[in-house]
Amino acid sequence: MTARPDGTDGGPGDPGEPIRDAGPGSGPEPGTGASSEPASGPGPASGSWPGSRSEPGGRAPGALTVGGSGGGALLVVGDVVTDVVARHRGPLASGTDTASVIRTLPGGAGANVACWAAHWGCADVRLLGRVGAESAAWHERELTACGVRPRLVVDPQATTGTVICLVDTGAAAERTFLTDSGASLRLDPGDWSDALLDGVGRLHLSGYLLFSESGRALVGTASAAARARGVPVSLDPASAGFLVDLGVDRFLSLVEGVDVLLPSRAEACLLTGLLDGAGAAAALSRLVPLVVSKEGADGALVARDGRVLVRVPAAPATPLDTTGAGDAFTGAFLAALLAGADAGAAAAEGCRAGARAVERVGGRPPARGDGAEATPYRAHAG
Predict the structure, then answer these.
(1) How many of the other CB atoms lie within 10 Å of CB of 8?
(2) Which of 35, 133, 166, 290 fits a disulfide with 176 by CB distance 3.0 to 4.6 angstroms?
(3) In whole angstroms, what separates CA 77 from the centre of its chain?
(4) DSSP reduced 3-state for 33
């Protein structure tokens, strides 16, 4: 699958196919000591899922059965990083000081997706990631507090990835990332075991894995293992900036066999060369069976077979920090699919979660110890 979609016959939803509207449905700083030490060496911080148990099958009944009762666990493979969020108002003052409010928070696209899926009611969410020894214990505690069962490989050489998030506190709460991927891009096939899929109903891959040679190899290994078991695979392209460096044709060849693609509008347009978000989503759905395009303030689009089938409006929100909004959408979307929702209803849940996310600082939902209750998917009438 190396040919770029041309978007010629379906564009922004084929006029012969009606488009349906669907209603929307902080912790200790890392590396501060005074905690249990992570396991040393290159192996996992723990040899199995914390509190793991032997589970039979439990996988979705088919690669494209995105509604259905499916069930099973969600396994996320991807990045775990430390976010340094600096909220400032107006342009940065070059060469001098800019007053900001700065917080250090757990983050990473893969980890954020896992946390939001657990927050949205998925009972068994697992995460495979790679971190540095200096903050492994902190990240494990933060993930566990959000209801995620982490398996963190401790890198013997690299430190945990760090992202500096510059957030303008104006009305749009727009953000700019400075990214040092660190240990997260060193996740490789040696960290994988097919046993990780035991009891798994869906596998989700963070697109950041595609931006290193070892990560690309892991994507191939994990995807092949999932296909062999009939476990559907989803992927979020992750970064339009990094996609430019990787190359569109190369990306499209790497995601061959993926069942669900969850790009942002900017990523969808970059991958197709089209300026229209709906046309881009429709074109991508000729290459990937199901495309769910995250359109920000315009909600989301669900496309299949070269047509946009559902438009989902955004849920109302007052933005404080847009960091992680797309991750929240993806986590809630996948939790809803596993609960039996169809793609349109799941996208509406994603929009609801995205609205929750932009009203918080950082990319994670509140930890369960903060008095927050999980938000389980519920089928909405109408």
Answers:
(1) 9
(2) 166
(3) 9
(4) coil
